[in-house]
Write a structure and sequence with these properties.
Layout lengths: L1 E5 L4 H12 L3 E8 L17 H14 L3 E5 L1 H17 L6 H20 L4 E3 L4 E6 L2 E6 L16 H5 L1 E2 L7 H10 L21 H9 L4 E5 L5 E5 L26 E6 L4 E5 L6 E10 L8 E6 L6 E9 L2 E10 L7 E6 L6 E11 L1
Parallel strand pairs: 1-2, 1-4, 2-3, 4-7, 8-11
Antiparallel strand pairs: 5-6, 8-9, 10-11, 12-15, 12-17, 13-14, 13-16, 14-15, 16-17
Helix pairs in contact: 1-2, 1-6, 3-4
């Protein structure tokens, strides 16, 4: 097959490309330039948008002996990921930019271009297992549960998955680093990326304030309605947040307060006790269902990229997914994705995903 290897400049994508070469595929490496001003990002940033990352990807391609290109997707990334991120926070929701990037950049914009150029698949260094059963692709958790990235890939459609390759799904991270060293790849010891790539200093609140400005509002006790303080924008908060609320006086019972709800129209941030964060039901929209299922289905629901799982019963009704949690989850925020898994011996199978609209 002709394979386009997306090479971020990290160890995972380099080893994934190496495995595609070793499997006998005709491989071409490509690095996505996602920042309009890559020189402004901090040197050595643990992201995937710096000039240094592009150089690392090129060196890895040279070692593998494959052609290498840099494709400028900065404008598309700004529109589909950064502007969406800002708009979601302004609306009082909590987005996942990595999920959005996979959906709109790596497996829509990049894949569309790859297919148009005659490539059969896009190869990435994501930790997830992918197989084809009865002609349909099935996405499962990685063998390395600690690195599993099936959650941020769960919004991919069946057609996108048919053109995807995840060579690292059967491997744990330590083995990947050892293999990189054996292959002579200089990124073998490169740290993993942890930051949102377009917020390299990690100051999400500051990033949003620069773009949205100050939108004054009130911090209100959810139980009594008492005004506890003021803030400069609901975009500085997310459901489940405890620190940085700006409330001087402790609660009457001495327990900490958490963000319970955001009301962007009125600018109100409602806070209260931890037990009020417990969610037993979720209504989600814009479902993506790569595996067909009907009626209520027993599954495991996950609401965050790492953690936030509970046994559940889910039902697909029109363009909504109704999820009843058998165990309550805390800090479930509108805008997040809920991903549904069916445990099996081959690894937890992704049944589908949807965007959380409301909770109960």
């Amino acid at each position: 097959m002709r394979v386009l290897a997306a090479m971020s400049g990290g160890v995972d994508s380099a080893v994934a490309a190496a495995r595609a070469v070793a499997a006998g595929h005709e491989v071409v490496g490509v690095h996505l330039a996602l920042s309009a001003k890559p020189g402004t990002l901090r040197t050595g940033a643990r992201g995937c948008c710096t000039v240094e990352d592009a150089h690392d990807a090129r060196r890895a391609a040279d070692v593998l002996g494959i052609p290498f290109y840099v494709w400028d997707f900065a404008e598309r990334f700004t529109e589909e990921v950064i502007e969406d991120f800002v708009a979601e926070y302004a609306a009082g929701r909590t987005p996942n930019p990595c999920l959005r990037c996979n959906e709109k950049i790596k497996f829509e914009a990049l894949l569309d271009k790859a297919v148009a150029l005659g490539f059969d698949a896009v190869c990435t260094g994501h930790y997830a297992q992918l197989s084809v059963v009865d002609g349909r692709p099935e996405l499962r958790r990685s063998v390395d549960e600690g690195k599993d990235q099936s959650y941020v890939l769960a919004s991919l459609t069946s057609d996108q998955l048919r053109h995807a390759m995840f060579p690292l799904g059967d491997t744990v991270k330590e083995q990947v680093r050892a293999e990189a060293e054996q292959r002579g790849l200089s990124v073998a010891d490169k740290p993993d990326s942890h930051d949102i790539c377009f917020i390299p200093d990690g100051d999400t609140r500051g990033f949003l304030s620069d773009r949205l400005g100050e939108r004054d509002g009130l911090l209100v006790d959810d139980e009594t309605g008492a005004v506890l303080g003021r803030h400069t924008g609901v975009h500085g908060f997310t459901v489940g947040q405890r620190k940085g609320l700006g409330i001087d006086a402790p609660a009457g019972d001495g327990r900490p307060r958490y963000v319970l709800a955001l009301e962007p129209v009125s600018g109100t941030v409602r806070v209260g006790a931890a037990e009020k964060l417990a969610v037993t039901g979720i209504t989600a929209t814009h479902p993506v269902v790569p595996v067909m299922w009907h009626g209520p289905v027993e599954c495991v629901a996950q609401v965050r990229a790492h953690g936030g799982t509970a046994p559940a019963v889910a039902e697909l009704i029109g363009d909504e997914v109704l999820v009843s949690l058998r165990e309550p989850l805390r800090g479930v925020a509108p805008g997040q994705a809920v991903v549904l898994y069916r445990p099996d011996q081959a690894g937890d199978l992704v049944l589908g995903s949807a965007t959380i609209a409301t909770t109960r």
